[in-house]
Design brief:
Elements: E1 17-28, E2 31-39, E3 48-49, E4 52-54, H1 61-73, E5 80-86, E6 97-105, E7 119-126, H2 137-151, H3 156-159, E8 165-166, H4 168-179, H5 185-194, E9 198-205, E10 213-218
Parallel strand pairs: 1-6
Antiparallel strand pairs: 1-2, 1-4, 2-3, 2-7, 5-6, 8-10, 9-10
């Protein structure tokens, strides 16, 4: 029996196209960075942009975001969260396009971006030194950055940007890079340990003549704990 086609109806009024765009954060070279592609096709051919593309008619938003990230950068398996919907009428010169942006976090050494699909190039860029971006992607990045800073109130966010085992100094560096400010070392350590988020691994790290630093891991990286 012939399989029915999805969404066979047609309407008299126009329908906007829908895309997804992905902001992928990492910490690289002691800086907060995002992954950008260089567009291989018009419009704005040659410009840097967020990975993303058009939603298929039978595809969920989450599947589209993951597919476009994999097709354009070769990266898969990163947990993505929906950020916001961008729908300014003139945001895309081709047609009326609404974009549902998603964002994710991952340690850079677990990712090997490779340009593919309609991407000429793909590379990490420091959040504080971005090139001019295509479409309204600068607005999307700005909102994603603000969301990340706010989300840092949930301590588990930092664990997504660090190795499973780390020193307290390395964990503090993640917070300082995202917040773009220095934190008091003693207060930070006391707060982390008092919240009972971490457990010792029994290992230590020695750096020169300094006392060896204990190595910790998160007791439960997925547990949501709001920092006070």
């Amino acid at each position: 029996m012939r399989k029915p086609q999805p969404f066979p109806y047609r309407y008299a009024y126009p329908h906007p196209a829908v895309t997804t765009d992905v902001i992928l954060f990492t910490i690289k070279d002691a800086q907060l960075q995002i992954l950008l592609i260089r567009r291989a096709q018009p419009p704005m051919q040659g410009s840097w942009a967020l990975p993303g593309g058009f939603l298929n008619i039978d595809e969920s938003l989450e599947d589209c975001a993951n597919r476009e990230l994999q097709e354009e950068t070769g990266i898969s398996g990163v947990h993505l969260e929906q950020l916001y919907t961008f729908g300014r009428p003139d945001r895309d010169p081709r047609e009326r396009v609404i974009s549902v942006a998603h964002y994710g976090l991952a340690p850079s050494d677990k990712l090997s971006p490779t340009p593919a699909s309609d991407a000429q190039d793909v590379n990490w860029h420091p959040i504080n030194d971005l090139p001019e971006l295509a479409f309204d992607h600068a607005d999307i990045v700005n909102l994603a950055h603000r969301r990340l800073v706010k989300k840092l109130d949930d301590a588990s966010t930092a664990f997504q940007l660090i190795h499973p085992e780390f020193t307290l100094s390395e964990l503090q560096a993640v917070f300082e890079i995202i917040l773009n400010k220095r934190l008091d070392k003693r207060n930070f350590r006391r707060r982390m340990l008092d919240m009972e988020l971490l457990e010792e691994t029994g290992k230590s790290f020695s750096n020169g003549n300094h006392r060896p630093a204990k190595i910790y891991r998160s007791k439960n990286p997925e547990r949501v704990v709001i920092l006070k």
